[in-house]
Amino acid sequence: MKILKQCVLPFASMALLFACAQRPSPTSALEAQSQQAETVQPLSEIERIVDLESSYAEQSTLAEKVSADKSALEATANALTEQVQSMSKQMESESLPDLQKAEVQAQIEAMLKEKVAVEANISSLTATDAAAKKELEALKAEIEKLKKDLAASKTATPAAKTAATHYKFTYTGQKCLDVQASGTADNVPILGFACNANSLNQQFVYDVRGAYFFLKSRVSNKCVSVTGTAVSSPVVQKACTFNSDKSWQWFGVAGTKGKLRNQYSGKCLGVNNLGRMVLSECNSIYAINFSYFKI
User: Fold this and answer.
1) Please, which pLDDT band fits residue 116 given cuts at 50, 70 and 90?
2) What is the C-alpha separation between 46 and 147, in angstroms, rounded?
3) What secondary structure does DSSP assign to the chain, as a single string?
4) What do you get for the CA distance between the two ends of the chain, in Å?
5) Pairwise CA distance, residues 108 & 104, whole Å
6) For 190-208, what is the mean pLDDT?
7) Distance (Å, whole) CA 22 – CA 164
8) Do the beta carbons of residue 144 and residue 45 sit within 8 Å?
9) Is the pLDDT of residue 175 over 60?
10) Percentage of the chain modeled with pLDDT above 70
């Protein structure tokens, strides 16, 4: 990836036309760590395909397990139905003592309750199975598109160089950094949302400035920013400035993945149970490992 020269400003606002020397310096603690910081390299088209195919294989395994569990539960439900029918016929055809009839009836009722529980589990697995198949279809479509684009790029005439290169930041192979509802106002939340190849609100300019970089949304021309320093502080977009609340660096790099640590807060990007990006301790299990690739 080509890094812009130090004094080339990526933003057009007149408010940003100040000397490059006024860029914020990292805090002393982060400055010492940044000297040894590694940088995650963007995934090539081939690496992206491999990454998605790995996710597809994992999702296929999950779908197969869900399907097998569902089949086993359906067999259990059928067996319970047959037992209930058999015992009901037995009660009707035989002259059983009242005490024995009560015992058989209790067994039938217990089986019917068990069948209701089994059918509820079947219903839940049916929904899970449908969601897994939908996810597989989406992954397959993206893989096929990437392969088609890759094949076309080998024969296409090189396009004219554009002013900015846009990237997608992904995690778990299926979620992307996302500006909520393609909003353009300040303080619009940054989400972790299902990746969509055509969504401009999932594309960002990756502007490197020494050991740090800024992430500028393609759809809003605003930068990914923090709203505080505490764990769970929301991550939003704000008008781009060279302030440290919008400045990020790679942390805990492993291969083609790494966490995004904010300069101002010293904390990393995580996601809450609503799918919104928030600050997390970088060494916690809630901090996300991202990959990124060029659009």
Assistant:
1) very high
2) 8
3) -PPPPTT------GGG-S-GGGSPPPPHHHHHHHTT---PPPBPHHHHHHHHHHHHHHHHHHHHHHHHHHHHHHHHHHHHHHHHHHHHHHHHHS---HHHHHHHHHHHHHHHHHHHHHHHHHHHHHHHHHHHHHHHHHHHHHHHHHHHHHHHHTTSPPPPPPS--EEEEEETTTEEEEEGGG--STTPBEEEEE--TT-GGG-EEEEEETTEEEEEETTT-EEEEES-SSTT-BEEEEE--S-GGG-EEEEEEETTEEEEEETTT--EEEE-TTSBEEEE-TTSTTBPPBEEEE-
4) 12
5) 6
6) 93
7) 23
8) no
9) yes
10) 79
Other CB atoms within 10 Å distance of the CB of residue 171: 19
Q: Residue 276 carries which side chain, given as an amino acid letter?
A: R
Nearest to 5 by CA among 244, 207, 221: 207
**In contact, 106 and 133? CB cutoff 8 Å:** no
Average pLDDT over residues 73-94: 84
Could you tell me the pTM of the whole model? 0.53
Cα–Cα distance between 48 and 35 in angstroms, integer? Answer: 29
Closest by alpha carbon to 191, among 56, 294, 288?
288
Sign of the CA dihedral 131, 134, 140, 146?
negative
The model's confidence at residue 66, banded by pLDDT at 50, 70 and 90, is confident
- What residues contact 54, with CB distance under 8 A and at least 6 apart? 173
The total number of residues written for the chain in this structure:
295
Q: How confident is the model at residue 30 (pLDDT cuts 50, 70, 90)?
A: very low
